[in-house]
């Protein structure tokens, strides 16, 4: 199992829409994530001192081929529709790595 964390901004004018979407996540989206070996998927919301809201995501990957599973998830038609609704609410960080939407975070420590 490997833990992942990432961060993204959320547009102020889209914050309530984003929260409502995630109060009612489509079951097919959750099922596909599970099929692709994603567990304990969690999103946290925090307004930082710059006044903007940010989303912090945590999940655990329990599979053997992360790239293949993430490609399978991304290729899913329902997931693509879900993302097409969610992405306009998000504001990616300017300093994220090329190819990232959510900026990956480095795990520093994990205590059981």
TrEMBL record:
The enzyme's E.C. designation: 5.1.3.32
GO molecular function, one term: L-rhamnose mutarotase activity
EC top class named in words: isomerase
Keywords on record: Isomerase
Keyword Zinc: no
Matches recorded under Gene3D superfamilies: 3.30.70.100
Protein name per its UniProtKB record: L-rhamnose mutarotase
